Amino acid sequence: MISWPNLVSQLFNGLALGALLALISSGLTIIYGTLGVLNLAHGAMFMIGGYAGFVTFQYTESFILAVIAGSLFVMLLGVVMERVIIRHFYHRPHEDQLLVTFGLGICFVEIVRLIFSSQSQLVPPPAIFQGITNLGFMFYPTYRLAVVGIVAVALGALFIILYRTRLGMIVRAGIEDSVMVDSLGINVYRVFMVVFGIGAMAAGFAGIVNAPVVSLTPGIGDDILVQTFVVVVIGGVGSFPGAILGGLIAGEIISVTSMFNPGYAYVMLFAAMTLVLVVRPHGLLGVQGRE
Amino acid sequence: MLKQRPFLIETLTAIGLIVAPFVLPHLGFAPNTVNRILVWGLFGLGFDILFGFTGLLSFGQSAFYGTGGFVAAYLLTRTGFSNVLGALVIGMIAAAATGYLIGLIALRRTGIYFAMITVAIAEVFFFVEFNPLSDFTGGENGLPGVPTPSFNLGFTTIHFTNGWSLYQFIALCYFIGVIIALRIVRSPVGAILSAIRDNPLRATAVGHNIHGYKLTAFVIAAAYAGFAGGLLGVLQAFMPPDAFTFDTSGQLVMQTAIGGRATLFGPLVGATVWLFLQDFLQSALGLGAAWKLVLGVVFVLLVCFLRGGIIGGLADLYGLVSGKRARKAAETEEAEIETPQQAPPAPMQAKEVEHPAYSGPILKATGLTKRYGGLVANSDIDFSVDQGELRGIIGPNGAGKSTFFKMLTCEVAPTSGQIMFEGRDITGLKVTEVCQLGLTKSYQVNQLFTGLTVRQNLTIAALAELRGKFRLDLFRTLSGVKGLTEQVEHTLALVNLTRRADTPVSELAYGEKRRLEIGLALATSPRLLLLDEPLAGMSPRERVETVKLLKSIARGRTMIIIDHDMDSLFELVERVTVLQEGRVLVSGTPEEIKTNAAVQEAYLGGVHGEIAA
Q: For residue A182, how far is the Cα from the chain centroid?
């Protein structure tokens, strides 16, 4: 039943899924860490990234342009959303922030449903990544391998932004103590806007990169959002390394469990989350005291 | 306003439910729609207790809705169990039990985390229902053939079949649900739940086991959800698998926010709006699938601009119209009463001592040390206070005074050292337990229940003392708690806030808030009361009054006071301990401290002479 090639290929699937989850969760977690807002529309951002890329691909036939357009569009959407709505919720209770982003998420999904209907849409992988690759011991879809690489590059870029630039330093300081950053004479609100844009872009980028792996539907973001939550709880809220570690763990759990029985994938994921909550309530790499 | 008339809301609900079948058909509501609204309304009663009253926003209620629904439907369709009401109750119990287990996990965290965990849990239930348990739940086909209830009364059999006939049964269930929910909300537990929503930190500090109460609210919400889920199956003669979807949870949250949270009837109003708009937009306007987008936009706008939802908005409107007159009346009254206070009320009795035989120092700390990483906040403090003593603590900023207090009340655990309260080792206990033992603190920065009135604030503190840290008297009224009214009135008089008793805290002046802060600590009847800068930020006149207040409450209890106002402090206390850089510099009578060279050094940096306070 369980063969080695099968297991290895599932491990690869887990790696691809995990990398994607890591990227999406990083977006969610840096937004939450900096702004204190949990964006329940993050799954919808992921979905919109896919659709924006899909439209671009329809017109240009270029996958690269689709990726760029998808990411930029979602980044723009994030910036607008922050400026117009989220900004007025920084001083309101967490519940209200959850409610408003949840409502926005529904609006986004329904708008997309209105335009593209509920039918699934396909974006083919770029020509160079089509087909399957012989890894010596097994055959594996080339594009999925590429996804791991592409996402790794994106995560690297995010790392550089967060840890090697002035902006990143401010963002990380903001995660620690945004009031202090504000009183140091840095315009926190502008930083917030940029962070929201970057976080959204991470989701949008993941959305279009993921589009050739699974077909697009307006509801595609809902499942991803739930998985992202588990990743963030496992990794620790506000922690970029935690999001990556959590993403990889979650991805592997889902893939490996699916090999035995897909119905139990979520159960195992949930069990892992419970275990983390019991042993390390603040997540594997989380910091105590941030709620 | 409405609360003063007993059973008013119950009566109005009953009338509304009786009248509905005669009125609603004329407004275009089909009986089936009304029944669905009631099921959502019932589902929402429990959810509102959880979200509106306790402040815990769960996105996972579908798990309990589905559990209750499928347990009931399974019993009725697959096992030959034919008592519909019995099945509904069993479903409810199953959901409540599930809620208890899930609550244990989800409530390990609060706020954002709690919301995320509930989402994840609900999703797990959805997948489990579809896959591993599909033999029991019918998988994506659901469970068809759920019967409707009938009751054999001996001489006749009442059978509720469908439409308005079934409405009678569902309306009765809803009515009972409302009565129970109202009892819960008006009970001591209900009061504590709103305290938890408002300020969990202080609710813990005055001696409530808030984890237990949160779990209670979670289980109540799960029980309501379970029963409503069962009713859904009865209503549709079919238990649909989509009861378990995230959409169900989402719809419940949205309906509650649309209707108005913390109102109990909000979910019902929200469901009415939702289902009406759904019908109206889909059929009348021919919008088809776009109806959900319209609802989403309406929802976002409501959250942005009308936080209290429809009911909250109407209440504000009513308050605006009726409040103007009332305020005018109040203002004239206030102008007249602005007289100095009468004879001070008798000092309040402190909690009775558990073991009166003990006669040593009431508090004894030895070797108390607190390190934050490399920073030593307190280092090797030995400190002892006798019964009935009034002790002052002074020290320059950053001397570690507040950290010291936090360790004494067990808010933070010491790195090393031991704390004895009345001869009992309290090191490592929780702040709740310590408060229950009779040691509490008033905070340097006000920690009040800002959304509640002055009276409600003190009630919450007094309840902790009168009921212990956890008690499930869900059906007792507040007036049924022995000694509560007396204790609250007494504390009100003591801190001179009787006139402001029904004012929301957010409308109090700073000095009044400060007195209420002390009142909250006092209402728990502590034998040892710590006061962290009670005079901070007060005007000279307020200081004089507060010193008077402190003197009057000091009778019959031990107090330790931190303050920077040395004139007032030296007048008040019998002994003073000076902290500097986390250590005890010196202890002595106010006179000794005033003339102590080391103290002058610490404060004035070597300038000799009297302390210029």
A: 28
